[in-house]
Write a structure and sequence with these properties.
about 45% helix; Beta-lactamase; alpha+beta; about 300 residues; 5-stranded antiparallel β-sheet; 10 strands; homotetramer; about 10% strand
């Protein structure tokens, strides 16, 4: 077994300078307030060991990483029926593109582009009495952190600036692929994106995807083995917007990134991992985070390929 | 270790009826001549065991599976410099689309769409004195089959009907992403696609990708460990045209399909596999072949996820 | 001079059977209530003669024909500065397409596709204290009909079903090409589209475009000669969605159609004309109306070409 | 009647400085050899008066203006049946785009984009024993200039660099919208584009389009009145690539431009006109030529609108 503690330490040293590259997301002030100097990483093995380095305990806005949680919850509720409303093919376009959605008549390409996540949220809303509370409960349970919270300032700010997402939601509604009201779906969506979690929280929360669907040793099963495998497949194909191929090529792990600079990923059978550094590249993925995960698979010699 | 022999036998029984679905490619008569009843499968473990079922020893037109061989040869010659001329992102479009190529100014999205393979062929032509002979030698070497051959009738027929590929090659040339002559590149490309191999040939030939770059136990290294990992990543992201996500979702193996009904895939560290059944779906992938590989990962419980 | 009275009579006879073709717009019930049997036509010469046939005096929902009125009002206020926010090229896409808008970074192709009309409305809102009242006053003045009104039921119904327009407005806002609030612009836009006018009203209201910018003999100048010419050019290039070429080809007049089945057009120096029949073709243009105008130019031997 | 001689003189003075703007086409050396200082203009009235200024007698490469001649010849042979193979809607895309062609399954948007002209050439080839000779004869007849010639150096150079056109022709063939051989169609197409004519030649050759289909006073009818009107409509909608709207807006005449810097246009019932200045803008239209025609309609107060 690799010496994960030493490897995380080495990674942190190597990637620190990269925190100077890229750009902290600033389309809302609440995201711009994070210092670009931050870097944290947490690796959690399937036999229960947690390794951390840097700012692994500090909470940040997980943004699109939340799409994994709502997707899992929805699959638990409706199974693969969901995939009549949303595809599972990589997009090859920016996460917020309307072009593909129009060509494909309102069926989003996959659940991780914004249009797809809006459809997932809509489906979830149709099956849970309290989507806001239920998502929070679920994330607290799988992360083992009862203090995980929505960041209301982030949610409110996204809401008042979210014109592209409003365009997508209205277009879905026009194409009869939104059951609930446009405003209702957008509000839930922005809440979910505003979840504040640390690398440690995320590494724990993603553990069940490293563990073939079971939460932890002796914990409850959240997804069937087949569902867990399929969710990992979607993360690998679609988890990094129009940089999914690049991430598979350089890193070789199923994962999901967020515009807040976080990335969570798993190596099935071995570990889950989360990394955070606020400055992102043009595709919306953390510069230092991408490099940290590339180093992790290189230094451990472990990847899915 | 799973009982591969029994599993292959079970798979063959289950998928036989599926050979009645889909459509044998008939855009050239030389492909239409194969009977849709054919089904073969060969699995070759990294410790040297070969398991076969059905028509695993019969040769067929491997078509686009050859793109893996020319890509590997080119990477051996020029390394990652190749990726300044061709991307590595999934395409989300049919394999022969011109649209993406125009939007992206003549840089094909990845090496497995036709435009990308033409660029790879072009690069190969610039570095080998005899691209036709060298590719044949390489494939014979890695498959251990000195009788592997081009099917000249297939090559000639593709050549005289290949207007879409000619459109792509001319467009690449217009965008200064083709160094050699249009006709020269097309001719080499059609030759490579015409390679006739069996499932057994292919399972052996793909072994080095299951074996982290090394041909077989004690054999020569063809790619570095990192290169082998990256090639598998490209196969997973891009190996199945606009059905790459579906294949990852259902099967969960890096692989490459061809319009002749063949699919080759690998599970790194464990085995390489090839399957063949001529009838293909609308996306160009073998119907029975896709199902056979899905069953393989389900019944063995083995996949990269 | 052609015998316009006889020609209109002949046209009405010939096109009556065509009212059975096409489909009355039914995306809101308020439009579906019009009988497909209706047909009316009014021709108003620059020397002040009005010729009518059929239901030329009955008011209907002019819908997108209103885009001409708001465009003229905005050009009167800001001149050609408007064209930094909206183009003047034909679109070649359906009137409500988001695709082009994304590729062109939020600058609508022309003022007559919906996105372009939303920008025009937005600019108008920035320069008039009471856009709803001012537009109504202007249309009453140029049509000489003080009883022209908004149809509040139509406006309300469009508002509650207008998800595609809401998508467009939000996307414009996201691209910083909307100065006022999304809701405010949409509300004004839907009001303007709800104007109810008759063929006679429209023939009078379009007179100034047949008259090089002057309202009627001795009337006030509304646009400079150059502005009137340019407005006619935009109508010819862009007035019929993705059927602009077909209309120029068959009819050869600058004009504008609406989904309510109305079309208004002009022959500069000679006359303005309006025609109405509710059933529309797949492109959104009145079937009988298109044919009526084609016959008008054929039977009179008059067109701009 | 305006004083055309004085107006042409004034135009020449005003636009001379504009010959310094834009860029002489240099994708083949034979076009780059023309001096950017050239400016010529010829106006030919329907009552037979010719007015010229500057280099109106010098021959240049008419390039895409030739598309009008082959279209007229083809319509004379097959009538509107041609429009089952090619549309008549404006394109909104660059003249050599493949994107639209793929979305529209190989039916070019109109006869004046390159793909459309290739289809017209193909249709012509199917109906004339000697397309090269017949086109030359036709152009000599309608221009009254028996010395008009192909420029063989231009044709040869286009042929050896015409990769984009070869891509288009192959794509048309792949979509079953080319009856003759790819090479045969390309060769004829490049010959037609290489025609060398002067402004005087062109003004005469376009006269029949100003004259409702009749060549000159007392001359033969080339097109029916309706066909002439429709051809003018196509020129207005589609004659200037993705600048058709701008040209209609600023100039207001049906016309056709070529990358050699020539533009021919007509005012039905009054005159035909040709202008030439080699430097072109980004859309491929002569900078000084566009301005000259804008001034012509402004100073004469004559346009179709």
């Amino acid at each position: 077994m690799p010496d994960y503690a030493a490897i995380l330490k080495e990674i942190a040293e190597v990637v620190r300078p990269l925190t100077a590259e890229g750009k902290v997301a600033d389309y809302i002030p609440e995201l711009a307030r994070f210092s670009r100097d931050k870097f944290g990483m947490a690796l959690y093995t399937t036999d229960g060991q947690m390794y951390t380095v840097g700012d692994a305990g500090e909470r940040f806005s997980i943004q699109s990483i939340s799409k994994v949680f709502t997707l899992v919850m929805t699959i638990r509720l409706v199974g693969e029926a969901l995939f009549s409303r949303v595809g599972k093919e990589p997009s090859g376009n920016p996460f917020n593109s309307l072009v593909q959605l129009e060509y494909e008549k309102g069926i989003p390409r996959n659940p991780f582009i914004n249009a797809g996540a809006l459809v997932v949220t809509d489906e979830l809303l149709s099956h849970t009495p309290d989507a806001m509370g239920d998502v929070l409960d679920f994330v607290r349970k799988i992360s083992g952190s009862p203090t995980v919270q929505y960041d209301l300032a982030v949610a409110a700010s996204e809401r008042s600036n979210g014109f592209t997402n409003a365009a997508l939601a209205n277009f879905l509604k026009a194409n009869h692929n939104l059951k609930n009201g446009v405003e209702e779906v957008l509000e839930a969506y922005f809440y979910h994106c505003s979840l504040a979690m640390s690398c440690e929280d995320l590494a724990r929360a993603f553990q069940f995807l490293a563990n073939h669907g079971v939460m932890e040793q002796g914990g409850p099963r959240l997804l069937s083995e087949s569902q867990a495998k399929r969710l990992n497949a979607i993360m690998l194909s679609c988890g990094f917007y129009d940089e999914a191929g690049e991430f598979a090529f350089r890193v070789g792990l199923p994962g999901k990134s967020g515009v807040g600079g976080g990335i969570a990923a798993v190596l099935p059978g071995k570990w889950s991992v989360a990394v955070w550094s606020p400055a992102i590249n043009r595709q919306g993925n953390s510069v230092a985070g991408m490099k940290a995960l590339e180093l992790l698979t290189t230094l451990t010699g472990e990847s899915i390929f």
